[in-house]
Design a protein that fits this description.
The complex is a heterodimer. Chain A has a domain of 109 residues: Alpha-Beta Plaits. Chain A contains five helices and five strands; from the N terminus they run αβαββαββαα. In chain A, β2 and β3 form a beta hairpin. The relative contact order of chain A is 0.19. Chain B contains eleven helices and no strands. Chain B is globular and about 65 Å long. Chain B starts with 5 loop residues before the first helix and ends with a helix. The chains are: A alpha+beta, B mainly alpha. At the A-B interface, α1 of A face α1 and α10 of B.
């Protein structure tokens, strides 16, 4: 009997406690910088696409929501002809970001991507590409990659020594 | 002391009782939210006050589905009974001097009779639904409300002895010197518990028991028929709260403010208390409920009646 009264009293004391609800649309919750939300494709500091269409993200994706087609430009640089993410399937696990060798694909702390029609959740490359480098400002894959492309031979990139001549006997 | 303007009183009490019952949906959700550290409905209108309107529109627009296997006339009649019996009880409720629909000299008995008739609504709803969960809910309701009805009546007899009348305005007048809650504290506690059980509110909501019986006696109801049960329940809460105010806390009596305001303050206090109890307490097991009613509450009520009678006999 006493415990019942005590319970009622303790519940009454909750009238003076702070409410835990976050009034969401008016009051945005804090999201950590590494919150995994909407996926974007980032660019080099000099404006080129980072994505080299290696398909690793599509392979890593556990729900197969990434589709892309690789192609090459006139300099021999690989890039995706199309890059498509179906956000109605995406589970925001971030495996694509971990798999990406060029920091091209990144997850952002934006989760407000609701749509009235499901097909509008399929994002094409122009929807995904952003203008900046995202989380890695100074990084340029092609400058440190040691890959030969048009206008840049092996060993000519920044911080890169010339390739070893494997047929020479000199040290 | 029947009201000088009977039609006005009837209309006023019906409209006010109905709107308070509707408003209680909002009050209950906000208060529950307060005690659970949430906000509750606060989007529709100022402080979410128009939530009631939105809910009403929604429930009227819903399909009014009568399942093919039910006993149709009884099924349709059942929600009306709870509504009518509670509204009838409001007829004997003295809001303020002169504001009463009908000053019956057996007002209290009429109230008890009407609340007993309310059991039919639940039992018939459970029976006519032709559904085992609904039937179980109806059976529970019958057993629970009958056993709590017994000591509900007896717990009020102390008040009747002290006031020397069954008429509710005379009972209020008898409290000019002292509220009956002081000499009749046990009776007040018993009536509070019985009132909770009569309105089938959360600690005693075994007839509904969402976690055991789907929705109990109103499992098969939808649309406004379902709404009628809830309006009936909220009107029952209002009725029991105002009855507590009238019988034990001096009704409209109070210093300064007009009688109606005192009456509403007291009623609202007990409505909030009902919601607080809902926020705090879990549902007992059914056998616990029954043995509490018969083995604890009934003897206590009888002892209270006996002692009150003896004291009054010796005193006079």
């Amino acid at each position: 009997m006493l415990s019942i009264l005590r319970t009622i009293w303790y519940v009454f004391l909750h009238s003076f406690q702070k409410r835990v609800t976050v009034q969401y649309p008016n009051e945005k919750p804090y999201l950590a910088p590494r919150y995994r939300g909407r996926i974007i494709l980032s660019r080099d500091p000099d404006g080129g696409e980072r994505c080299v269409a290696c398909n690793l993200c599509a392979v890593a994706c556990p729900v197969d929501c990434i589709a892309l087609q690789a192609t090459e430009d006139e300099h021999g640089r690989r890039y995706p002809e199309f890059f498509r993410i179906n956000f109605s399937r995406c589970i925001f696990c971030g495996y694509c970001e971990e798999a990406c060798p060029t920091y091209a694909i990144q997850l952002t702390p934006d989760f407000e991507i609701g749509e009235f029609h499901r097909k509008n959740l399929v994002y094409e490359k122009e929807d995904l590409l952003i203008d900046g480098p995202g989380k890695y400002p100074g990084y340029n894959f092609w400058r440190i990659a040691g890959v030969k492309i048009g206008g840049k031979d092996k060993g000519e990139a920044a911080h890169e020594s010339a390739p070893v001549d494997v047929r020479s006997l000199l040290p | 002391m029947t009201s000088p303007y009977p039609i006005l009183s009837i209309l006023g009490i019906v409209v006010v009782a109905m709107s308070i019952a509707a408003f209680l949906i909002w009050v209950e959700r906000r208060l529950l939210a307060l005690w659970q550290d949430r906000y509750g409905p606060n989007r529709v209108g100022p402080f979410g006050l128009l939530q009631v309107l939105a809910d009403t529109i929604k429930i009227f627009m819903k399909e009014d589905w009568v399942p093919p296997f039910v006993d149709k006339p009884v099924f349709i009649l059942a929600p009306a009974i709870v509504f009518v019996t509670v509204l009838m009880s409001f007829a004997v409720l003295p809001v303020a001097p002169g504001i009463i629909v009908s000053d019956l000299n057996i007002g209290l008995l009429f109230f008890l009779a009407m609340s007993s008739l309310g059991v039919y609504s639940v039992v018939l709803a459970g029976w006519s639904s032709n559904n085992k969960y609904a039937l179980l809910g109806g059976l529970r309701a019958a057993a629970q409300m009958l056993s709590y009805e017994v000591f509900m009546g007896i717990s009020l007899m102390g008040v009747v002895i002290l006031a020397g009348s069954f008429s509710l305005p005379s009972i209020v007048d008898g409290q000019r010197r002292m509220w009956f809650v002081i000499p009749q504290f046990l009776g007040f506690v018993l009536f509070l518990i019985a009132g909770l059980a009569e309105t089938r509110r959360i600690p005693f909501d075994l007839p509904e028991a969402e976690s055991e019986l789907v929705a109990g006696y109103h499992s098969e109801y939808s649309g406004m028929k379902f709404g009628m049960f809830f309006v009936g329940e909220y009107m029952g809460v209002t009725l029991i709260s105002s009855m507590i105010a009238v019988l034990f806390f001096g009704g409209w009596l109070g210093p300064g403010l007009p009688g109606v305001v005192w009456f509403l303050i007291k009623t609202f206090f007990f409505i909030s208390f009902f919601v607080l109890v809902r926020a705090a307490l879990p549902r007992p097991r059914f056998d616990q409920l029954m043995s509490w009613g018969w083995k604890v509450m009934l003897p206590l009520a009888l002892a209270n009646l006996l002692v009150t009678g003896a004291v009054v006999l010796v005193w006079r």
